[in-house]
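Tokens in:
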């Protein structure tokens, strides 16, 4: 088979706008020119764009997709430090939904084959009417990029893409029972694959919704904390002002007492002077006494009026401060109630609600396969998923960890005299319960030497 007969996969890049549509399409070489600074994108200036790298076959069907972020500066040039290996991620990505040509390879935030690139990826929306994968599929079908299309292949696969053809149209008529059995087995296998695709798509959507809920809850908590801190600072300011007013009132009362004492002393002094003047004459003493009484009454009346006005003003201010403090306390109580209501809507209630709707939580662990986790086991699984998988395999956690290291890299782990490892490939033990430390993870030579040492 020559190279010209092989179908060619085309790599392209598509940009999403804020409204959820595709606003820009380009081939991957054009995208590389954009990254190298040959061209710019002024319409994307000072924005963080959601971008998808797709691989399209000659029938205009998507075979792989990588969803990533790309930042542009104020001049419309992309981030110079951007270095995500899109082709590598697309090749190592896990299975995703079927967009017409079988399950695609999908790399996104919740399904990233390289963990340190996860923060630079985003999850596509799978909601009905806002499905980003459907947008990519339709954009590829519109073929604005001008890709070469294999017309015959498209016509030959049109009934299969529609998935509505009956069995007698999918397979050549075979009167023998063996042909009918093979057709039924193939149909059953395809239905199983489609069911698995649907389950994986729903699991991806649940993960995306959970992450959105956590982000919204964190925003509400942060806003509540900031509002609470502001109210606390305002209340502390009011309390400080109240203390200052109380101190000022105490000082005024002290001054009033001192002023009254001073007036009393002055009165006693004037009384003594009056007694001295009585010796000089009755008429003169009467005049002085009258003047003295008038002056004292005027001074006392003036002082009493002045201090009463000050006390009334301070009482009004204290009442206003008390009213503001009561309002602040009510606002704080209301915010605390809102915070408790937000905190009560935790992830556990969401999981319980999903469980009542019939959602099943399934995880995969090597050696244990796909495990269905009951709702009551979710907490224990989150605490120690490795111990949970080991218990399902009927082995200890330590043995399961040793077996998992052997399963991922089946080489001899015996130590050599030079200080290194033997590292000779050995047969993989597929079942954790059959794994024996020191036997299953050693080659035949080191097994024999370990037996000799044991006998000696």
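Residues out:
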């Amino acid at each position: 088979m020559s190279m010209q007969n092989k179908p060619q996969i085309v790599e392209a890049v598509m940009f999403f706008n804020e409204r959820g549509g595709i606003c820009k399409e380009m081939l991957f070489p054009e995208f590389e020119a954009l990254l190298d600074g040959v061209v710019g994108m002024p319409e994307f200036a000072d924005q963080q764009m959601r971008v998808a790298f797709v691989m399209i076959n000659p029938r205009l069907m998507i075979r792989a997709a990588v969803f990533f972020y790309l930042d542009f500066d104020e001049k419309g040039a992309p981030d110079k430090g951007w270095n995500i290996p899109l082709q590598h991620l697309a090749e190592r990505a896990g299975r995703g939904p079927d967009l017409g040509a079988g399950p695609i390879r999908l790399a996104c935030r919740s399904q990233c084959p390289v963990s340190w690139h996860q923060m630079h990826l985003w999850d596509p929306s799978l909601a009905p009417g806002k499905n980003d994968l459907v947008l990519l599929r339709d954009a590829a079908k519109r073929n604005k990029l001008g890709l070469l299309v294999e017309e015959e292949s498209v016509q030959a696969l049109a009934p299969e893409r529609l998935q509505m053809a009956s069995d007698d149209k999918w397979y050549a008529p075979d009167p023998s029972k063996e042909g009918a059995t093979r057709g039924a087995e193939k149909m059953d296998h395809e239905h199983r694959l489609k069911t698995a695709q649907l389950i994986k798509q729903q699991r991806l959507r649940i993960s995306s919704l959970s992450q959105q809920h956590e982000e919204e809850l964190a925003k509400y908590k942060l806003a509540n904390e900031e509002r609470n801190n502001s109210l606390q600072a305002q209340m502390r300011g009011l309390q400080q002002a109240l203390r200052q007013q109380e101190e000022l009132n105490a000082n005024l009362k002290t001054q009033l007492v001192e002023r009254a004492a001073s007036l009393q002393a002055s009165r006693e002094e004037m009384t003594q002077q009056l007694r001295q003047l009585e010796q000089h004459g009755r008429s003169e003493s009467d005049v002085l006494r009258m003047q003295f009484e008038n002056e004292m009454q005027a001074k006392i009346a003036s002082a009493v009026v002045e201090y009463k006005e000050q006390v009334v003003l301070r009482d009004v201010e204290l009442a206003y401060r008390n009213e503001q403090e009561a309002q602040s306390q009510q606002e704080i109580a209301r915010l605390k109630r809102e915070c408790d209501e937000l905190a009560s809507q935790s992830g556990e209630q969401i999981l319980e609600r999903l469980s009542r709707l019939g959602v099943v939580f399934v995880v995969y662990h090597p050696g244990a396969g796909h495990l269905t986790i009951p709702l009551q086991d979710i907490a224990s699984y989150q605490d120690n998923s490795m111990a949970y998988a080991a218990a399902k395999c009927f082995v200890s956690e330590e043995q399961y960890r040793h077996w998992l290291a052997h399963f991922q890299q089946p080489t001899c782990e015996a130590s050599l005299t030079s200080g290194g490892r033997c590292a000779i490939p050995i047969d993989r033990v597929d079942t954790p319960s059959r794994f024996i430390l020191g036997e299953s993870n050693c080659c035949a030579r080191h097994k024999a030497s370990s037996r000799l040492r044991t006998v000696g």
